[in-house]
Amino acid sequence: MRLGLIGLGRIGAFHAQTLADLDTVDSLVVHDADPGVTALVADRVGAQGVDSVEKLLAAGVDGVLIAAATVTHPALLLAAVDAGLPTFCEKPLAADITDAIAVAGKVAGARVQIGYPRRFDAAFLGARAAVVNGELGALHTVRSTTLDPAPPPAAYIAGSGGLFRDCSVHDFDAVRWVTGREVVEVYAVGANRGEAFFAEVGDVASASVLLTLDDATIGVVSNSRYNARGYDVRLEVHGALDSVAAGLDDGLPLRSTQPGVTFPAGPPHGFFMDRLASAFRAELAAFVDVVGGAPAPCTVDDALEVAWIAEAATLSLKEHRPVRIEEVRRVG
Questions:
Q1: Domain annotation for the chain: domains and CATH numbers
Q2: Considering the entire predicted model, what is its pTM?
Q3: pLDDT by residue (tens digit) across 260-283?
């Protein structure tokens, strides 16, 4: 199979190596807006580098992966779908909800997979199985956490769409997917005690979001760009019969103050590349199956539902009040 990869920043370069290591991928064509980056990554993974998106789409690829900046997602996704190619697109669909609605309508029916790697993490899969199998009984609380060890560069933050659209969406998707329920109301708070560039673009560096699900389960989402001990991704699901957690391994970046407790033994996870390496590999292997004709495991509709939650959280933070999803939802 021959695949094309657009965007070779931190996640794109990581995907390039993952794809090169997959036995099912025979050849790889890569492109980045920076020709030097294209040449560097192409040489490192043994790929063909091209100097335009048009050349990549015309290079005889069987499918396309989009890992470029968020603001480019709509145009790149439409170009790949218009070329008749199965497409993997990193989250989110777009930085703006209007663009997300528009692109979702235009690619309806196409083979598109959206990048939410926690759906492929073994522990998250185990939590979902426990819910689906009824092991936990009626759910009452689900907690999802994403804490980065350090913030991305200022330029990335400026084009990210904000913490809720760039980071919290992973938690929103995990809550929906693991519980099988929809979010109906959001209340968000946020603060910036870090670099000034967050406030300069109207973003926050840390936030917490309370979610009310359609069966009255309470969701709690915690995010921060500043967690110096390491990269912390966890999920807890609590029910009337039992409770489970994903992410409680020896790499958990927490230090216990309980005397005699040695867990977690460490070293802490340093970043998403090591914490979710197996999940990324499984996610891209699943896309190879999509190129072969399998249904997408995470759809454009899923991404749009998550976008509504992020939109509600953004409004809630701005206006300091709970926001119902139906208040922000609209049809393009």
A1: 2-117+284-298 (3.40.50.720), 119-272+305-328 (3.30.360.10)
A2: 0.94
A3: 999 999 999 998 888 999 999 999
